Amino acid sequence: xxxxxxxxxxxxxxxxxxxxxxxxxxxxxxxxxxxxxxxxxxxxxxxxxxxxxxxxxxxxxxxxxxxxxxxxxxxxxxxxxxxxxxxxxxxxxxxxxxxxxxxxxxxxxxxxxxxxxxxxxxx
Length: 123
Hints:
Radius of gyration: 13 Å
Distance between the termini: 40 Å
Oligomer: single chain
């Protein structure tokens, strides 16, 4: 079955950067899928961060991510990235990659999710 695996998380100081990766076990599956990133902090609900179309030409971001984060993908390698710059304490969370859909103006994750990678931003 298809698996999504995130990596690249870690601990950084405010203002620092991290690059998260999400690798799918099935390249053929990955190529035709809308993909995205979500995050969840302890005690909080999971929230949308960014999404990207199958061809990588169109991207969408949450207000908190816009201007600081960049989502990208390479279908041959079945890999998606989230470049995070100017990280803030409030970015601390577990980050998940997933297949996504947009319903009534809202991005949702469905069908496939990774296990998550931890991002901690602290001075």
